[in-house]
Amino acid sequence: MLDAGVGTGRNFPFYPDDCTVTGIDISPAMLDRARRRKDKLGTVVELREMNVTAMDVADDSFDSIVSTFLFCVLEPELQRPALEELRRVCRPDGTIYILEYAISENPLRRFIMNLWAPWVRLAYGAAFDRHTEQYLEAAGLNLVKKKYLYKDIIKLLLVRPKAL
Ligand SMILES: C[S@@+](CC[C@H](N)C(=O)[O-])C[C@H]1O[C@@H](n2cnc3c(N)ncnc32)[C@H](O)[C@@H]1O
Question: Would the pTM of this model clear 0.70, i.e. be above it?
Answer without folding.
Answer: yes
